[in-house]
Amino acid sequence: MASTGQAGFTVWLTGLSGAGKTTIGHAVAAELERRGLHVEVLDGDIVRTHLSKGLGFSHEDRDTNIERIGWVASRLTRHGAAVVVAAISPYDGTRKRVRALVEEQGPFVEVWVKAPVEECARRDVKGLYAKAFAGEITQFTGVDDPYEEPEDAEIVADTVSRSPEESVAFVLSELERLGVVAVGAPTAG
Length: 189
Ligand code: ADP
Description:
Elements: E1 9-14, H1 21-34, E2 39-43, H2 44-47, H3 59-78, E3 82-86, H4 92-103, E4 108-114, H5 117-123, H6 128-133, E5 155-158, H7 164-177
Parallel strand pairs: 1-3, 1-4, 2-3, 4-5
Helix pairs in contact: 1-7, 3-4
The structure holds adenosine-5'-diphosphate.
């Protein structure tokens, strides 16, 4: 395969449902694309309809899902893509394993999209917290399934103290500070 001439990397957004992974991930991806990078977004919800169709939410199935995403991210990183993953990825050990896999090919930047469960439940973007608190769905991360807080996150993006736009700008500036993304030309507006 022809090289893109671009050094690949993976930005891995982890956090509770409703914390802001998808919102931030898509906006960061759009900005990287605007800057001319080859970008691929791997969104946990979408992956579950394709690559991980049929998997549930047991510890084992969650690990399988994350490891599949990690494997794809690693292959894309190898070919010079800027990979943006948005997936709850609740277990620290699993995140460490996918980090090791990706780091064989290029940088791995873990972003903890941080909001407490009370705030995520208040947002309840998909109406899932109400169902989880009512016991209509089980094994819901942050309610009756664990979320292991990241130990290794290069970036901690608190989405309570920032607006979505501020969170996106913060993550981009951190990626620049880490040297993963070249400092971009100032955007108009
Ligand atoms: P996730 O992908 O983590 O499940 P979503 O991105 O789907 O979360 O939803 C997050 C919700 O929180 C959106 O409705 C978004 O507008 C809102 N929100 C509030 N503040 C922020 C912030 N600083 N960053 C990202 N999203 C935020």
